[in-house]
Amino acid sequence: MPSRSADRAATGRRVRVAIPTPLQSYTAGATSVTVTVGSDSPRLSDVLAALDAAYPGIRFRMVDEAGRVRPHVQVFVGGAIERDLAALLPPNTEVFIVGALSGG
Amino acid sequence: MSPRTAKPRLAAPRRVRLLIATRKGLWTLTGDATRRTWKLAGPAFLGHIVHHAVLDPRDGRTLLAAARTGHLGPTVFRSTDGGRTWKEAVKPPAFAPDSGRVVDHTFWLTPGHASQSGVWWAGTSPQGLFRSADGGATWEGVAGFNAHPMRKAWCGGDQDGTPDGPKLHSILVDPRDARHMYFSMSSGGTFESTDGGEDWHPLNQGVRADFQPNPDIEYGHDSHCVRFAGGNPDRLWQQNHCGLFRLDRPATRWTDIGVGMPKSVGYVGFPMVPHPHDPDTAWIFPMDGGSVWPRVSPGGKPAAYRTRDGGKTWKRQADGMPKSQAWWTVKRQAMTADTFPTVGVYFGTTSGEIWGTRDEGRTWRRLGGHLPHIYAVEVG
What we know:
The structure holds 2 protein chains of 2 kinds. Chain A is of the alpha/beta class. Chain A has a single domain, classed as Ubiquitin-like (UB roll). Chain A is built from 2 helices and 6 strands. Chain B is an all-beta fold. In chain B, strands 12, 13, 14, 15, 16, 17 and 18 form a 7-stranded antiparallel beta sheet that branches. In chain B, strands 3-2-1-27 form a 4-stranded antiparallel beta sheet, with no helix packed on it. In chain B, a hairpin with a 7-residue loop joins strand 6 (75-79) and strand 7. Chain B is globular and about 55 Å long. At the A-B interface, helix 2 of A face loops of B.
């Protein structure tokens, strides 16, 4: 499925976010979306806030109320696992959200 | 017949629908007026862990379902058309960000008082109490419990309690007074509020806590299920980790009603189902609580037990159930009753079977099966 744009701000940096199947009910099936964050040097938390603004409710399913990425969700920034929401996004990086292996 | 002597005539519903919440989604099982023909439908939320699904009796069409998945956090889904369409809560139950606590799952849902349209209550794991004033769309923590200075002492740590997390459950709202409430916890015991949830106090006198160094404690008990007696909200029934109890308010000391159970069966179990029209009648479904707590039908011989005298005596009811090698587990929300004049009782097993009786337990019949692990069965 093609990527969908969820731009809300007229200016700022555009970040592509890959959405795993468990969260695609929020993105109407889109496997990746593009969000716009206001800062030129955004943090991961800015990306997730923009994602939640475009797709309400999606953040709480992957990040708990204490601000921690849930145990069975993995977030990759530029190919590396990142669980610190305050981490800065290097230029031209994409965010991959993955449902970690678990189940039964 | 004069109005003074007239007995209320109970009209038989035209059908009965069971909401079956499972580890892999939500199903419904609908029986016709004879309760002989049943039709299974679903699933909704396939792959979601659905801990509880409840109909709002105030409008007869709003449903709430507490769900999460293996990967994703907990949420609540709402339907205002009897389950045809669903919307997710805008703000599901969650602890205050500065509390350091995290809701693992919403475990229990209770519609609010008849006078408070749109009010719902939710109990979570670990133990938290939440309230919605808009039909389940947004939820706020009840600070009177969640931030109570004694909360941690009452509950223990968030890792203590039942194997899949300690729970707040059995939220009861007095039908005569919206401000008078009870809830119970595994672990923690039973608590009461007389001010709509702004403050709570323990209500556990007389309840055993055999697993504690001091079994005669004020709180820290393991209540499995607490219900109002049918037609008498001054009477509470309790199935506890350590036995069966009854409380008749305004007394504050529970009466042990497990002494009438056969020793070979014991008094451990999860659900407690009141007869909707008779405050002296209730059903339980005993589990093996010996040795390492197998929590299956004792001896592999499943049976419900019914009292008709307030818990003094219990009668085994197993006609129609397997006579041996049936190692069923029935969880605390997985047994319920309808409101027919001759009451039907229903239960679901963790092995995905649904059983029921349409003659108050004299005979039982398998109504469906091949479902995932069943967490809850409610009439709705």
